[in-house]
Amino acid sequence: MDSHKDEGMGMTYLNVGISKTRKGPRKTVRMLVDTGAFPSLLPAEILEVLGVEPEERRELRIANGKSMHRRVGRLYVHHGGRSAETFVVFGRPGDAILLGSYALEGLELEVDPKSRRVRRMKALPVYGAVSA
């Protein structure tokens, strides 16, 4: 797995492919893994070059509790032979490049709480939906 823990900051990054469609042209980007964020966030310029279009404008709540409105669309993320469609926020200059929890789980990945490295899920979580 090509995750990277930034030793000085305690942050985890992952190189992922992104594309407008599952089999479309891909661009590789280094993204900060943010398990507290639902959507991913990428610069609008990158999304526009890929042909990703905004579907709606949504209210987003950021870590400090404030809210903001941004355009949101969909794209595919690719890593380790897996692909997943995810929601993506059209970022503005100065915004972080984030891989949100929706994309992370779609790729069947999780962050190891001790090493803070990204790893493949050992089993898919399904709570209360089936009997053992």
In short:
This protein is mainly beta and 132 residues long. The chain has helices at residues 44-50, 101-106; strands spanning 3-6, 11-19, 27-34, 40-43, 56-61, 67-79, 82-91, 98-100, 109-111, 118-120.
Uncertain spans? none
SSE pattern, N- to C-terminal = EEEEHEEEEHEE
CATH superfamily: Acid Proteases
Shape: globular
Number of helices: 2
**Structural class of the secondary structure composition?**
mainly beta
CATH class: Mainly Beta
CATH-derived architecture? Beta Barrel
Q: Any descriptors?
A:
mainly beta; two-stranded antiparallel sheet; 8-stranded mixed sheet; globular; Cathepsin D, subunit A, domain 1; 10% helix; 132 residues
Please, could you describe this protein's structure?
The chain is mostly beta strands. It has one domain: Beta Barrel (Cathepsin D, subunit A, domain 1). It contains two helices and ten strands; from the N terminus they run ββββαββββαββ. The chain has helices at 44-50, 101-106; strands spanning 3-6, 11-19, 27-34, 40-43, 56-61, 67-79, 82-91, 98-100, 109-111, 118-120. The strands form two sheets. Strands 1, 2, 3, 4, 5, 6, 7 and 8 form an eight-stranded mixed sheet that branches. Strands 9-10 form a two-stranded antiparallel sheet. The N and C termini lie far apart (31 Å).
